[in-house]
Design brief:
This protein is mostly beta strands and 314 residues long. Among the domains are: 81 residues, Sandwich (Jelly Rolls); 136 residues, Jelly Rolls (Sandwich). 2% of the residues lie in helices and 36% in strands. Strand 5 and strand 6 form a beta hairpin. It is elongated. 24% of the residues are buried.
């Protein structure tokens, strides 16, 4: 998936990193012990795979094998439309990874990896296969075709909603330093379930607000888990010309970011985002990761408001 695997923002460890619990009316019970078995999918591993003519059930990761005949060889492009997400090998050569969301819907096949006669194809589909179980060779690439079912993010702000902070005193307000480095601020402990971050202006004095990730600190300065968090509202989001959804501030990926509207309108500061932490927490600080790939919209002056009840106006 090309995940971030270096630097200060390693964020998406895979597998069982701590424990697995079953939570029901009896409480939380830890499950285990667990054994994790790696599958390297190198040439030796692929050669040991056992295949059956039985149809694999949809929704279950599986490796599919097929073959095709060629009279002569040449470069081609393998059409993976109809499959979900995975990787392809031809005659033992790894072509690469595919994903139905696009926009790339073909994999380049060098002619030197093909041969006259029988050629073998292996497809690892991790999302559970396809109803067609077919591939096709094309004489052109498809590099600009997003899937039709990739939805455009919806704006969080509903008609008539307006965050009302009149009479409230922020629990913290400060000025972030300029640049792409993480910004961390501590403040006296406060109990809250709802949090509103208000950006008063930007480092470059533009009209936008951008923010890659927002974390909150709990007792002892440790970061609170964000698994139960949700973004309830944002005054502005750019979802027409790019995915600038406010949901990006809690997605764990510092390369995505919330961006206020810029394509059809450019609303001025202040800009605000409201989070529901899922339960009342003790807050002692915050950590923000600014937008990493551009200085546009990076927050300068800001204020943080908290509440045990939903904010008025939302």
């Amino acid at each position: 998936m090309g995940r971030v695997n270096y630097g200060p923002h390693l964020h998406d460890e895979k597998g069982i990193t701590e424990k697995v619990e079953l939570v029901d009316e009896r409480g939380a019970r830890e499950l285990g012990p667990w054994e994790q078995v790696p599958h390297p999918f190198d040439a030796a591993h692929l050669a040991r795979l056992a295949f059956s003519r039985a149809d694999a059930p949809l929704g279950v990761p599986a490796v599919y094998r097929g073959s095709f005949e060629l009279d002569r060889v040449g470069d081609t492009f393998l059409d993976t439309r109809g499959w979900s997400k995975g990787a392809v090998w031809i005659n033992g050569h790894a072509l690469g990874r595919y994903w139905k969301i696009g926009p790339q819907q073909t994999l380049y096949v060098p002619g030197c990896w093909l041969k006259a006669g029988t050629n073998t194809v292996l497809v690892l589909d991790v999302d559970g296969g396809t109803t067609t179980l077919s591939l096709a060779g094309l004489d052109y690439p498809i590099l600009d075709q997003p899937a039709d079912d990739v939805a455009t993010p919806k704006k969080l702000r509903k008609p008539g909603q307006e965050l009302a902070l009149a009479g409230r005193i922020p629990v913290a307000e400060d000025t972030f330093a300029d640049g792409a480095k993480d910004q961390q601020v501590v403040f006296p402990a406060v109990k809250a379930r709802y949090v509103a971050l208000v950006a008063k202006n930007a480092q470059r004095d533009d009209a936008f607000t951008t923010l890659a990730e927002l974390y909150l600190l709990g007792p002892g300065g440790t970061e609170l888990p964000r698994s139960n968090w949700s973004v309830l509202w944002a005054d502005s989001e750019e979802v027409e010309s790019e995915n600038g959804s406010a949901q990006n501030v809690v997605d764990g990926d510092p390369q995505t970011f919330w961006h206020t509207q810029w394509s059809s309108a450019k609303p001025a500061h202040p800009h605000a985002i409201v989070l529901d932490l899922g339960q009342e927490e003790t807050l002692t600080g915050l950590r923000c990761i600014p937008r990493q790939n551009s200085a546009n919209g990076r927050i300068r002056q800001w204020a943080l408001y908290t509440s045990k009840e939903p904010f008025a106006g939302l």
